[in-house]
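Quick one, T. Sequence first:
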Amino acid sequence: MSFTELYLFIVAAVVFGYVLAAVLVETGLVNWLGLKTLPLAKFGIHPLLTQVPVIYLVSPRAAHVVASKLLKEGRVKPADLYLTILATNFPMRLMFLYRYYFPVLLPLIGVIALYYALLRLAFDVLLLVLVSVFGRLRYKSLPPVSYAFESAKVNFSFESISFGLKRGLKEGFLFTLKFTPLFLLVVLLIKAGAMDWLTLKLKPYFGSLGFNSLEITYITTAAISPPVAYGLIKVMVKEGIKTSHILGTMAVGNAMFSLLRSWWSYLLPYYLGLYPLRITAVLLLLQAGLPILYNFTVGIILVRFF
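Structure tokens:
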């Protein structure tokens, strides 16, 4: 995918998310989902945010728009948002595994794909458990949240849908104005060789951590394009490299991709224009920083000690 295609894809996806969220709000579907998803509060999610994980599975952008609206209205606090987004990682991971990892990796590397899926899933399960514990303690004394009956009615009128479309397109346009300069800056850095320079500088460190030349090649390739790097997994299997080393290499490769590309091309567009800078920074730390730290740590442990 070229940078132009990536830019158009991001903008189109985000604008779609804004439009979908606005229509969900204006037609009353968000409130209806809030009533239907209240049982999710038992997992440590604020009752007003229980619809966010459901919307997230359809459109993460739309889910963040809804959460941002509640945050701006003062109905939830930043901590409530953080807990909800962390809890949402688990169902998102399940969907990602059966839609991407298993169809791509299982035919390529067999049972190793299953081990890697479990390795990735373990992190999200741990987060879900922690969120459930902290959330239950946080909301134990929270008064029951009640929805007015009228607010739970769904209104698919021409006026509500058209107003939602106009509002969503306007918000999408404002996002594009903010995102475009940042995207161009990142592209200029990549074109100037900043990413390649960083990858080259890191190579000696990977070698000192126990990665061989083929594993380092996988990591540096995955930092730019994971699908291209997947072909090297088959080579590692044929050369008899230990499963633990392959899993560790895949984990570090994923961490490198997140560090150099994923956070700005996938995560930042969700948050930009919706949240204050402080909240955006915390979300990036939680959704990019924690997985990067986890993948680096697990990968290095697997290669050095197993």
